[in-house]
Design a protein that fits this description.
Largest sheet: 7 strands, mixed
Oligomer: single chain
Shape: elongated
Distance between the termini: 55 Å
Number of domains: 2
Number of strands: 18
Order of helices and strands: EEEHEEEEEHHHHEHEEEEHHEEEHEHEH
Number of helices: 11
Radius of gyration: 23 Å
Strand content: 25-35%
Helix content: 25-40%
Amino acid sequence: MAETNAPFLLTDDGCVRWQTRTLRQLGKDERFLENVIGAHPHLLGLEDRRTHVRGPYVPFHQLRLDTPQGRTVFPDIVLLTESGHIIVVEVKLSDNDELADRRVVAQVLDYAASLAAYSDSEIADLFGGDGGQSFQEVVRTRFPDAARPEELAAVLLERMRSAELHLVIACDGVPDGLREFVHGVTNQSALGSYELRVVELVPHVTAERPGILLLPSTPIRTEIVARTAVNITYREGQPKPGVEVVVSSQDEVAEAVRQAQAGAVRELRRALAAAVATYDVIAEQGLATTGRASTYRQIKPSGWPGSVHYEFLAYGENGVGIELHLESDATKAVAPALQRAVERLRSNYPTLVWDPRWSANRGRLVIRMDNASSASVAETMRTFIADTRPLVDETLAAVRRS
C-alpha cells in the first residue's frame, strides 16, 4: 500500500509520520473490522444533510436471511437507526478476491432483495422478537428512548418493503476497478431506491504511539442513475446457484453518471407520472406507491412479502400497465390461484393477461392501458387491488399454515 498519503502528527517535539498498513499486516481479520464498525457506526460517514441518517444505532451481526431464491445468506452487519434508516454493511479486507470483482456487489444486492421479501412478522422475528411480538414491540425494546416508537417501526418497515436502504461495502483498501463497476450498479427493479457506497477505512500505525489510526473516506458512492439486473443461475452439478450482476450499457451508465453529477433527476414518464399522482390521491391507507425509478412505481400491501406487489409500469412515453408481480420461489404458490381467476377478472378488465414467463416463470398479471386517461388508470388500479388482494391474502395465509 502506497505511503504518499500517510498522515503526519505535528507535536512540540517534532513531526511523526504514520505508516500505512493493511489490517492483515497488523494481524487483524475481517471480524475485527466488523466489530469495530458495529461498535462505532459513525465511521461509515453516513450522517449528513443529504441522507438525514442519525443515531442511535442498533447493530445486528450475521443475521440469517433467506433469499427469494431459497438460499441462506448472512450480512455482516445490519444497522437500524433512530432516524428510521436501515444500513446493510458487507465487510471485506483489501486482499479478499471478492472485493476485486462483482461478487461483493452481488452479495449486498442479495441482502437487499432478501429483506424486501420478508413479511412484517418475519421481520419482527429477525430482529429479536420472541415469536409473538410485533415489530412495533421489538422497536420499542431496541430504542427505549425513541419519542414515537410506533412511528419509527412503521417507517423502518416501509423502507424494508421498498428496499430503500443504505448498502455499504466497508474495506481497508479499495482495489483497482471496483470504483468503475460500482458506479454502474444502481436501482434494480426488484429492489427499489437504494444507495450503494464503498467506505475505505485505511489503518495507520506509528512506533511512537500505541493503537491504530483509521482514516475513513468514501471514494465511491452511487446515485440512483442506472438499472441493474441480478440473474440467479443454476448449473447441473453446482451445489449453489450463481449470482450474476448485469449492468446497463457503458453509454447509458456514462450518461446517467453525468446527469447525477450535474444534479439532474430522472423524471417519471409523462403518462406514468400522471397516473401515479392521481392514484395516490385516492389510494387507501397503506397502499400508496413507493420508489423513485423513472419507469415504474410499486405498491406493497402490508403483510405481503416484498416479492409480491402491484406495479404501475411505463410502456413508452404514453402507455401505462397495471401489474401484479410474483418475484420469488417462496410465492410461486400464488400463481395457480391467479391463473384460475383470470377468466373471472377479465369481465372487468378486458385486456388482462397472465404472463407465465415473468421473473423466471413465476408469473404476473398484466393490464395494458395505452392512451387511457390518468383518472381511468388510477381507478383501475384501485379496483384491481380490491378484486385481487383478498385472493392473494387467502393464498399466502394457506402457504404459511402448510
